[in-house]
UniProtKB/TrEMBL annotation:
Keywords: DNA-binding, Transcription, Transcription regulation. It comes from Grimontia indica. GO terms for molecular function: DNA binding. The keyword Flavoprotein does not apply. It comes from the Bacteria. The keyword DNA-binding applies. Residues 38-57 bind DNA. Pfam families: TetR_N. This is AcrR protein. Residues 15-75 form the HTH tetR-type domain. InterPro entries: Homeodomain-like_sf, HTH_TetR, Tet_transcr_reg_TetR-rel_C_sf. PANTHER family: HTH-TYPE TRANSCRIPTIONAL REGULATOR YJDC, TRANSCRIPTIONAL REGULATORY PROTEIN.
Length: 200
């Protein structure tokens, strides 16, 4: 009887620590890019078996989608909340500069979303759809701020909402890529402020 119980216990799958796996995967994709880290490496770092990881997330696409969701919750959603508290476009731009140039302890530089967008066509459908949706929401948010800024006389009537959103997105993407490459943060800060001065 005891021997049978021991065998049964050994046969049970280990408990999966989903939060740990997501933290490891998010930081690995953030640091190395989605093409720079394998499932095997993530399994090793998270101390989980490959079958166990697949049971939890389905496949690599499911893991990447979940890692992106974790990134949005930890990093992107707080940024949007901060931007929503601003009362002017210049305040929004200042917060975006702070977001890009702030050196976060124990977190990689740059942006997971930017790295995923760089290899978007090579991502799975779930991750691509999630990435497109959050980018759409961000662009719509900035377009809304552009409209309010125009109504408040902060930007010229000749600048369309879409142009302002596209311009800000392009400058942010470039600056975050520079940060990910380890370029001097003071230089990135100065260049981004100069780029945003066209709008502020």
């Amino acid at each position: 009887m005891t021997q049978e119980k021991t065998k049964a216990a050994r046969g049970r799958p280990k408990t999966i620590n989903r939060e740990r796996i997501l933290d490891v995967a998010m930081k690995a994709y953030w640091q190395e890019g989605t093409r720079g880290v394998s499932i095997n490496e993530i399994c090793k770092l998270a101390e989980v078996s490959k079958p166990g990881l697949y049971r939890e997330f389905g496949n690599e696409d499911g893991l990447m989608e979940a890692a992106l969701a974790a990134y949005i919750e930890q990093t992107f959603s707080p940024l949007i909340a901060t931007l929503e508290s601003q009362t002017s476009l210049s305040g929004v731009l200042a917060e975006l500069v702070e977001f890009v140039c702030n050196e976060r302890k124990e977190l990689p530089d740059g942006c997971l979303m930017v790295k995923m967008r760089d290899t978007q066509t090579k991502l799975g459908d779930k991750t691509q759809n999630a990435l497109a949706e959050i980018h759409y929401q961000f662009m719509a948010f900035i377009e809304g701020w552009a409209q309010r800024a125009r109504e408040g006389g902060e930007i010229p009537e000749t600048m369309s909402n879409q142009f302002v959103a596209d311009y800000i997105d392009a400058q942010l993407t470039a600056a975050l890529a520079q940060r990910a490459r380890g370029e001097d943060v003071e230089k990135v800060n100065a260049v981004l402020k100069m780029a945003f001065s066209v709008l502020a």
